[in-house]
Amino acid sequence: MSKIKELTKHLRRGKVYRRVELELWSNAVDRHIAELLEDKTLQRLSPGLYYYPRKTAFGVAPPDEETLVRSFLKEDEFLLMSPNDYNTLGVGTTQLYNKRLVYNHKRHGKFVLGGRTFFFHVKPRFPKKLTTEFLLVDLVNNLDKLAEDPNEVLTNVKDRAKTLNTAKLLKAVKNYGGVQAKKVFSTDLIH
What we know:
This protein is α+β, with helices and mostly antiparallel strands. The chain has two domains: 3-62; 66-190, no CATH class. Helices cover 39% and strands 19% of the residues. The chain has helices spanning 3-10, 19-22, 29-38, 65-73, 132-141, 150-161, 166-176, 179-184, 187-190, and strands spanning 16-18, 43-46, 49-51, 54-56, 59-61, 78-81, 100-104, 109-113, 116-122. The protein has a four-stranded mixed beta sheet, covered by helices on one side. The mean pLDDT is 91.
């Protein structure tokens, strides 16, 4: 069996690979990657990051965002979200953003992965998955970056806070709140 076929045998459709992973199955990884890119077996997502496309009835499916970010960061400790998630809170945010945020412990900056732009933010703490309480706190943390009228949104946030579980909200404020969020969600406000 040729070395390139041996390498291809290890690939799984829909999976993202780092160059270092492909080295495990190749004695000339750069040459083999170049050949696999040329025959479209692999797609380059960013330097050193490759995708073995999953085929569907509609053509080639792009990599799942979580898989892409997980491979880029080389870990599972991240939270992938969008400012559009704030719209689910019912506090007057209605803008649609073409922006993906990645809260993580390693990387900060704007990165293009697989033709999609991600904004990575290093945060000391973030939940494993989105909760209403976290979203409300994060909205206040990022209020200055949104297109809506901040005063109107803050009024609605205060009303929404009164409908949530106080203990959960206070825990989210303590764990994830910045100075403004701690001020907005003072214990007097939510009791």
